[in-house]
Amino acid sequence: MTTGPLPLQGQVGVVTGAGRGIGAAIARKLAALGAHVYVCGRTRSHLEETVAAIHAAQGKAEAMVCDVTAVDSVERSANAVELGHGRCDVLINNAGIASFGSPLHLLAPEQWDRQINTNLRGVYYCIRAFAPLMIRARTGHMVNISSIASKNALPNGAAYAASKWGLNGLSYSVAEELREFGIRVSVVCPGSTNTELSPHLGKDPQKMLQPEDVAHAVAMLVTQSPGSFASEVVLRPTLKP
After folding, report:
1. What is the CATH number of the domain that holds 154?
2. In a domain, 3, yes or no
3. Is 107 inside a domain boundary?
4. Does the structure show a pLDDT above 70 at 75?
5. Which residues pair with 199 in a beta bridge?
6. Cα 44 to Cα 63: distance, rounded to the nearest angstrom
7. Domain of 131?
């Protein structure tokens, strides 16, 4: 029996926050679909673990240290991708941090800044740096990893919620700006996911979403037929954790 090419064969993917958790799962999934994946993040040792797992599965990937809160770092990364492959077909803006447990009026300004700078400003930097490659090719897909906290009230997590509500608005607006170039922009809003991002006290990790569940949703988005795109996916666990 013969099989055709993989859905993302010959394409180039960039995944931020890909050293562990959801980002690592997405990077592995894109590589399994045939893409050459740039695995981006701040800690090289974690990135190398993701790359090693992809290589062990016969996929193509390379680690690239990138701090999404620093515009120079993001621009260097985009330049490296352009120099290495001349294209970026898939951009996954996944890098994110969270700080829970404090009402907003007691939150230190530096904690607010860290969350907004990573979860929202970092996505702006990445779109600013990588969109020109997609515009030039008149094709591409961006997926921004948001949260179900962008839909619901989140007491003692207002800064995180604000960053994700803002990310949704950014995503919908950028989708309108870029669709004329054949670029599709989607946002994924997962519910409680079993990662190191937050402790999820009192929840059963086995009933929570797993990073691979989010990666599967991303794979569905980036392999859609070219005539349509899903602007938003809200992902929930089957059983309440």
Report:
1. 3.40.50.720
2. no
3. yes
4. yes
5. none
6. 7
7. 12-235
Please identify which residue in the block is written with the tokens 């492959």: 85
How many Cα atoms sit within 13 Å of 91 on the Cβ side?
30
Q: Per the structure, how many domains does the chain have?
A: 1
Whether 33 has a pLDDT exceeding 50, the answer reads yes
Would you state the pLDDT for residue 200?
67
Q: Taking a C-beta distance cutoff of 8 angstroms, is the pair 62, 51 a contact?
A: yes
Beta carbons of 159 and 104 less than 8 angstroms apart: yes
Strands (DSSP E) found in 66-125: 90-93
List active site positions. 160
Q: CA dist 57 to 34, 90, 93, 218, Å? A: 11, 20, 24, 19
**Residue 2 resides in a domain:** no
Q: Answer yes or no: is pLDDT of 1 > 50.
A: no
- DSSP code for 106: G
Of 12, 63, 56, 64, residue with least CA distance to 33:
12
- Tell me, yes or no, whether 215 lies in a domain: yes
Q: What is the per-residue burial (b if ≥16 Cβ within 10 Å, else e) of 212-223?
A: ebbbebbbebbe
Q: Which of 1-15, 87-101, 107-121 has the lowest mean pLDDT?
A: 1-15
